[in-house]
Each structure stands twice: as structure tokens, then as C-alpha cells.
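Handout, section B. The chain below has 45 residues.
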Amino acid sequence: MTDDDDDMTVFSDKRQKRVKITAWVVIGALVLTGGGATVISLILG
């Protein structure tokens, strides 16, 4: 059963990396297109 757990860990790590990359791409696209201007101004004050 430990082999199954190890396999799932590999998939989980790959999925986590893909989610992080996707999130950063979306954030970058919003900032570059100005759609995130409101969010940035709220965060930075």
C-alpha cells in the first residue's frame, strides 16, 4: 500500500506545481492588462 501512496504523492506534487504556475500566469495577465489595478491599489493602499 505504500507504493500507492508514493504514486499519489508524485501526482500531488505535479498538480501543486501546475496550480502555482497557473496562478502566477493569471496574476501576471491581470496586472499587465490592467484588470488587477483595483486589487493592486487595494493591496498597496
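Note. Helices lie at 2-33, 37-44. Compare this with the example in section A.
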